[in-house]
Write a structure and sequence with these properties.
The chain has 192 residues and is mainly alpha-helical. The protein has helices spanning 35-41, 58-69, 87-94, 107-115, 138-149, 168-181; strands at 42-46, 49-52.
Length: 192
Amino acid sequence: ANGRWITLDCTEDIGNYEGSAYPLSQKRDYFNPTEDFFAKTHLRLTRGSYIAAEEPSAWAKEEIIRAVDKRYIPISILFNYQTPIRKSDFESLLGILSEHDDQFLTRLEAAVMITQVMSVSLLETQPISYEDTINLSWTEQMALTALYHNDIMHGNGAFFYPDRLITRQEAIVVVERLLESGTYRKPTYGAS
């Protein structure tokens, strides 16, 4: 409340109350509302502000925290990290006007969308090829190449998994990498 933590003790201490008060003689180290304590089980949103959240995978946690600290990512998507992200949510992260319904997004679709907001030229670059992307179009191959060479999105070893749905944590990480890469150009709509 008013930017400060409120500690509510909702534990059940049957038999430990004297009258209606908790006796001071009882050890009360089961709850410690310090920032270090909250950091173990909560995601830091801003200095001194935490929310209880499903933990992102270890490989994504540092970049997710950095994206939140830099206000790249809206707080509204900071949950259910291992679940797929919807197209409309991903497009809003990229600054693209969305007309999609609530369909989920594949890794390949995400890669192509990301390259729509990148300012890079790879005309003389040999396309990167994963074992499961050999049959992709030249445009899709170049999208993967742009993301690979700019350290934004990679496969896992020899595979990219283009048809796998992209998770919320993957989406947050690739958007954070895109914004840090210096290749992002905000989409423009209509004539100026």
